[in-house]
Structures are given as structure tokens and as C-alpha cells.
Amino acid sequence: MKTSDFDYYLPQERIAQTPVEPRHSSRLLVLHREDGSLEHRIFWDITDYLNPGDLLVINQTRVIPARVYARKPTGGRVELLLLRREDALTWEALVGGKGLTAGREVIVEGGPRAAIVADLNGSRRRIRFSEPVEPFLDQVGQMPLPPYIHERLSDPERYQTVYAREPGSAAAPTAGLHFTKELIDRLEGMGVGFASVTLHVGLDTFAPVNEEDPQEHKIHTEWCHLSPETAEKINAAHRAGGRIVAVGTTSARTLESAARLAQEGQIVAPFSGPTDLFILPGYEFRAVDAMITNFHLPKSTLIMMVSAFAGRELILSTYQKAVEEGYRFFSFGDAMLIL
User: Fold this and answer.
1) What are the chain's domains?
2) 287-307: pLDDT as tens digits
3) Among candidate residues 252, 205, 200, the one with its CA nearest the CA of residue 222
């Protein structure tokens, strides 16, 4: 297995720059793993593929406005992109600016002072603020859209799911962006259940794998939480014959992390903490029966995960068909339902 095995050609114009309105009017490519057949629908039609007793597992994380600007003592402007909170005052961050080494201080524009306490790798730094930075973010922070999105986002809430509750992500769990309150109500009225987990998404999610052998790639850890109540809901749905449908790769990663702790008669157990689970082809899924997901970057850990779920050749041929059919790719793009 080589990283190049997960590469594909994507014309620039296929990368979605803006979200569609309403959310549930995005296109939906339905992939049947059993025979490789495809159906072209819109997301609202997902009701045709779900049954009473199925359980959709959603990631209720909320993206924080994590891009902030600061000034050096000399007056020079620098950019900080907050990636992961380590404690009340300390964050791992990406820094943009020269000379930002351990020991240097900056002042957030409209916010607290920040000291760089450690150089990590590349442009990553560990930063300690003089007071908690979260109360300032709504005023001074900007939404950290992925680098392939060049259009300005007029409404920051369009980069949040309608069920986002727990602040902590540097990127949205984008499969969930297609849901509207109307669609959720319609599904619940059919007898389809919902269960919430939390995984705070890091920007490493979008990073390509640079190693020739993907197994040598150091997978990013992300904090996730699956409560005892959610675990019981998932196990009960499974026992009753319902399918566990992961809404996005983040929900899938949380479910499969919790599956590693499952006891006899369970498919998941409660779990809270960092996960380093790296899902590659050959992995046997224990908790996920179906998956809703967007179209992922070439050579990313996420296309490797969906290839593990549906088969590499089938995913790559499906992506090629999606390009030919004019589907929109990546965060603000269209969706797939993998059955």
C-alpha cells in the first residue's frame, strides 16, 4: 500500500467555494457497496435510504473563530491559528510571522498577551495566554476556513452544523453541514434516531500524507467523547436490528475508538479522551454500518478511511464518476451516502 494509491485528479473548478441554500439541497451520491451501483439524488432524499430504528450518530462539536491577529512588541502583525486547547491558558497553534520562537511575546489585537513557550514542528507553537482567550474570540477571532476556500463567508454560521453545541474545533465536521432542522424533524418523524458524540476536529484532518508508506504517517490525535447514555442508545439500536449510520468521518472515528473498549454484547463502550485511531484499508469496522460523508482531499487520511469502508478501487472509481458528473468537492461540497 502506497500513499499514491489514494491520489486522484480533481479540476480546481470542482472545489466548492460557497455553500448551497438550503443546506439539504446539495447533491447526494448514493454508493451501494454490495454491487458498486450509484444513484444520483439530492440530500433531502436521504429519507428514501433510512429506515425506522436506524440511528444517525452526529458530531455536535462547534467550530471556534480560531484565527486571531496579534502584534509583536515591535509592532509587526502576526497571525495565530488556535488548533487545540491543552489547559485553561495553553494552546497549540500555528503561527504566521518571523522570529516567533520560544520566549517571544505577542499581544492579541483586542485580547490578552501571549507567550510562546515551545517550538513544536514547522510553524506549530505552544502558546500560553495571560488569561483565557475564549471570551475574546467572538469579538477578535475569524472562522478558520480551509486553505482551498478563497471566497469570503458572509455568514459564519454556515460553517457550523445546525446541531453544533460544544466549542472546540478548528474545522467543521462537514458531512453534517447538509442537515436542516426540517430534515431532522422529518427523519425523527419516520422513526430514525439521532445520537450525539463530540470530536473536536483539528486542521491536520485536511493535511495530505507525505510519507510514501501511509502506515508511517503519524496520525493526528483528536479529543472525543461518547457518553454512557449515547453508548447505551447505540448498543440498543444495534440489538434491535437498526443500522448505525456515522454522519461524517469524525463520528466514524469516535465510534470505532469507542468500539475498541466494547465488552461482550456491546458494539461500543463509553469513551472520553484523545484518539489516535488511524483507519486504513484492511481495518475491520466494528460499529459503523453506513456512512454519510463529503468528498475528501487526495492522499488524505480521510480518503483512506472511506477506502477502508468501501474499498479503494470502488471509492476511486466513484470519485472519478463524481468529477465527471459535476459534483462539488470538499468542505462546502456535495455528500455521499455509503451503504
Assistant:
1) 3-63+153-338 (3.40.1780.10), 67-140 (2.40.10.240)
2) 999 999 999 999 999 999 999
3) 200
